[in-house]
Predict the structure.
Amino acid sequence: MHALAILLAIVAPTFAYQVTGPSGSKGWTNVGPQPVTWQRVDTDPTNFTIVLTDTNRAELSEDQVLVAQQDGVATNTVNCNPPSAGWPLGKTFRINLVKSTEDQSTIYAQSSEFQIAVPNATVSGSLTTPLATTPIAVPTTPLATTPSSTTATGGSNAPPDPNSAAAIKASTGLMAILGAAAFFAA
């Protein structure tokens, strides 16, 4: 009987809740809700509370309850909203799945240490390299146009409509020249 109890004590933890994310290889960013994932077996309790903890109290002064009484049966993942002060930054965080907000010392599972970091920067904004190092001459005279036929209003040589094909072609050509100048200047 005593041997059976020892065997169950050794085997039981392998069949309990297991936090599969976050992990040391896949941490969180400090932006928006963050996912917690787990695995369970039928003998595990149906509910638990998700707590963010850190042994480095400079990073997190006290444990933070992220989700109270999470249903562990209906799903195996939940997105946790940040604490009221936002996600702290650091490298030694853990997620604990505990019995309840009142009983956080009964830990069903604990994640490996993971990092909460600023997300990778993405390139955005405008080009800061000068487009041209030499002035480009832009003609000051109007572009030549083909005289238009008489319109219904009686005009015969009216200036071209700024939305006409000739105006668009001219602005496209100017953009091509500026783009080429920027390319060769760089």
